[in-house]
Amino acid sequence: MEDGDTQLFLAVDLFERLSREEIEGFAGAIPTKDFDQGHHIYTTSYRGGIFFLLLQGRVRVYRMEGRQEITLSVIQPGGMFGEAAFTDRWRKGAFAQALEPSKVALFSRKTFDRLLDEKPQIGLKAMEILSDRLSLYEARIADISTKNVLPRLASLILDLARSEGVTVHEGYEIPTHYTHEQLGSMIGAKRVAVTRALTRLRKCGVVEVRRRRLYVKDAGSLQRIAE
After folding, report:
1. Sheet of 50-56: strands edge to edge?
2. Which terminus of the chain is more exposed, N or C, with fewer CB under 10 A?
3. Domain with CATH 1.10.10.10 in the chain
4. Cβ distance 80 to 37 under 8 Å?
């Protein structure tokens, strides 16, 4: 395995409790595949017993509610997705799409089960990841069901700041450029409604948009709006 690929596998959340030597021992046998921006890693017709590790790029996991796309999560490098491979259930309604050119490792259930026998810490980490993701999904569904667009957007921006934000002197920078349409798909809202809500957050002084990126200036006030 090339050194560059080694570094990519070392950054995978699922393997964080393993040593470099342990990862090198099996990572070379895990196939990888490159996806262009906009291409789907899987759709509702996919039934393979494989889940996925994102090595480079960003991937959006979403489902359709009527004619509307609802983004469940945006996977960052090192993340795991396609967790339905842990069960016998079909990925009903689920899609995974590359938001930018992405490299994905195809991790079969058979390989996972074999490694689990040898390195049970992988299973413990998988449980943590899936538990955190379930909590995120439940919170997002609850927000969509009970909150107006403004607190839903505030809650989402806080989640993005926690998951990928970079600390800057005035608060947090979210380094990924999210369009208003993409933000809307994460909170079940139309683009126009997101634009109005974001304008209100900017006028309140809790959020700024600079160079097409979001900056959280006052996390405490944003939290109160989210609640």
Report:
1. 32-35, 102-108, 50-56, 80-81
2. C
3. 147-226
4. no
Whether residue 149 is predicted with pLDDT greater than 60 in this model: the reply is: yes
Side chain identity, residue 130: L
Task: Tell me the residue ranges of DSSP E strands in 40-194.
Answer: 40-42, 50-56, 59-65, 68-75, 80-81, 94-98, 102-108, 166-168, 171-174
Q: Please state, in angstroms and rounded to a whole number, the distance separating the CA atoms of residues 68 and 85.
A: 25
Report the CATH architecture of 147-226: Orthogonal Bundle (1.10)
Q: Write the single-letter amino acid at 170.
A: E
pLDDT digits (tens, 9 = 90+) for 186-221: 888 889 999 999 999 999 999 998 888 899 998 889
Number of other residues whose CB lies within 10 A of the CB of residue 139: 12
Superfamily of domain 3-142: Jelly Rolls (2.60.120.10)
Cα 190 to Cα 104: distance, rounded to the nearest angstrom? 30
Kindly report which listed range (75-89, 142-156, 172-186) carries the lowest average pLDDT score.
75-89
Question: Directed axis angle between helix 219-226 and helix 191-204, to 10°?
Answer: 130
d(CA 137, CA 54): 19
Could you read off the pLDDT of 47-73 as tens digits, one per residue? 667 889 999 999 988 887 777 778 888
Structure-token pair, residue 198: 């974001």
Can you read off the two tokens belonging to residue 216? 């959280």
Alpha-carbon distance of 41 to 14, in angstroms, equals 19
